From TrEMBL, chain A:
It is a peripheral membrane protein. SUPFAM superfamilies: P-loop containing nucleoside triphosphate hydrolases. Keywords: Amino-acid transport, ATP-binding, Cell membrane, Membrane, Nucleotide-binding, Transport. Pfam families: ABC_tran. This is Glutamine transport ATP-binding protein GlnQ. Coiled coil: none annotated. One of its GO terms (molecular function) is ABC-type amino acid transporter activity. Belongs to the ABC transporter superfamily. It comes from the Bacteria. SMART domains: AAA. The keyword Membrane applies. It is found in: Cell membrane.
From TrEMBL, chain B:
This is L-cystine transport system permease protein YecS. SUPFAM superfamilies: MetI-like. InterPro entries: AA_ABC_transptr_permease_3TM (IPR010065), ArtM/GltK/GlnP/TcyL/YhdX-like (IPR043429), MetI-like (IPR000515), MetI-like_sf (IPR035906). It comes from Meiothermus taiwanensis. One of its GO terms (molecular function) is transmembrane transporter activity. Residues 158-352 form the ABC transmembrane type-1 domain. PANTHER family: L-CYSTINE TRANSPORT SYSTEM PERMEASE PROTEIN TCYL (PTHR30614:SF0), MEMBRANE COMPONENT OF AMINO ACID ABC TRANSPORTER (PTHR30614). It is found in: Cell membrane. The gene is yecS_2. The chain crosses the membrane at residues 21-45, 57-78, 109-131, 151-182, 203-225, 231-250, 329-346. One of its GO terms (cellular component) is ATP-binding cassette (ABC) transporter complex.
Amino acid sequence: MSFLEIRNVHKRFGANEVLRGINLTVEEHQVVCLIGPSGCGKSTLLRCINGLEEIQEGEIRLHGDRITGPGVDLNALRRDVGIVFQSFNLFPHMTVLQNITLAPTQVLRMPEPEARAKALALLKRIGLEHKAQAYPDQLSGGQQQRVAIARALAMEPMLLLLDEITSALDPELVSEVLNLLRELAREGMTMILATHEMGFAREVASKVCFMYGGVVHEEGPPEQIFSNPQRERTQQFLASIIEAGRL
Amino acid sequence: MTEPNSKELRRRHPIPPKDGFGFALLALILAVALWLATGWVMWLVKQTMTANGFQASWADALLVLFALLPSGLLWSALRSLGQARRARQALQSENLIAARVHSSEAHTWAWFTLGYVGALVLFLLFVLFFIANNVAVGRTFFQLELIRNSFGLILQAFWVNVVIFLFAGVFSLIWGLVVAIAKLLPGKPAQPIRFIATFYTDAFLSLPSIIVIYLIGFGLPLTGIGFFRNLPLEALAVLALTLTYGAYMAEVYRAGLESIHPSQWAAARSLGLSYGQTLRFVVVPQAVRRIIPPLLNNFIGMQKDTALVNVVGVIDAFNQARIIASNDFNLSAVTTVAILFILITIPQTRLVDRLVERDRARFRQG
């Protein structure tokens, strides 16, 4: 039994079938990178794992327990599976500290002082202690994204989903976010990330999945996918990435 | 040699500005005419005062002052004319830049003159209306003595309006939010609730508030149900206004709630917050901030509608004023009510303006 098992997942938006039978397994402490052209279903897959989207066919199991379909306590699931979005989605009317402590105090019923102490420790770790009382729009994009990661980490998830979290950032702010991810990977956080940062994927991934046409088209260790891809569409994709100077 | 095209021609022969002389002259003529008209109106006022046996040197001084006031416009009109002349001279010496500067000045001063002429004309018309038919208008609406005598009684009755709109205001703000949330509940099980909420807002948006007040204020006590029979009329008025304005407030809340981007929902739900927690901590606080100006506008609208409660016999300021007015056969008491409403509303509308402005500033900031 694997940590996360995704079996034959189909997701349709009306007539548009975005996921057409995804199969994927993730082990604990693995970092899985989803790569592929825009619209191939990377983000949708992540949103399905978190229960933000309903799936029409197939199933997803976490620790052997089914987390899709009717009767699943999504609020409970989401305590274990955190997600960070491309557009940060911090709560603009709350300070950084309040953003981080909201879910622990309200969902886990953690006492306020404990939640604050924990949030401050997290902020210290991402180097933003001094911004605890700032509002999100007073931070740079990179800082906002680090806060968003801290907000997800405050729930101590078993699995962290990262949805193109550097795509909306200025190039010079990307590295501060990637450094944080590197650190999390070293500490053994299980992560699935949809990304266009091929160099980063190559460096930290335990497994790389090339998604195309709503399925996992090719998967394998990063060296194999990036240096010796077996399938034609994967080769094309990587060739265009190299041409664009992104690998 | 090729024919120079129109672009080159334009570059070689820029379009000269108009000197604005005719416009300045028009401003001057109107200013002079207005001055004469003002003198005439003030003379009429003086005559009316004499006819009514009213004589006071301060009033005479005031009339003279008013009659002299428009002479300021002569100054601005002459200034416009002077600039126009200099623009004309500059045009003759082909100094286009100076011509533009003077022409622009001439136009500005001419418009300045015309603007004040327009405002003063309105003022003079009002004065004429006021003193028409031997000050009939003045006597009917603005008899100072009656205003003074009725003020205490009306202020007391106005307190009823204040209490009604404070209660109805708070209740409709809460009720509106409840209805808006009911209207937006997701899922199949909530369908009947959505239906009821939609029907309620549709019905009360279309019902004139005076009819609701009438039906509730007269109807509910008539039903003989003990609870309603023993309620004071003011409470029924609060109920009627809350129901009516709750529907308006609900529509505003709904617009606010729907304006919050779905990504905020996704972020909150993904952290494990329930639907209710997401509303309470994330969506409603942001929505309310955005809709404070329209909510306040509704609040002001409701304030005015408290004057309608007189149809069921509540002795509010308007009803009190009507009683006084029919006793004296004069509307000055009603003017008092009007003044009171204006006095409490103006600070609120200014507050709305400031909030809107603050919102805009934040939006500009990004």
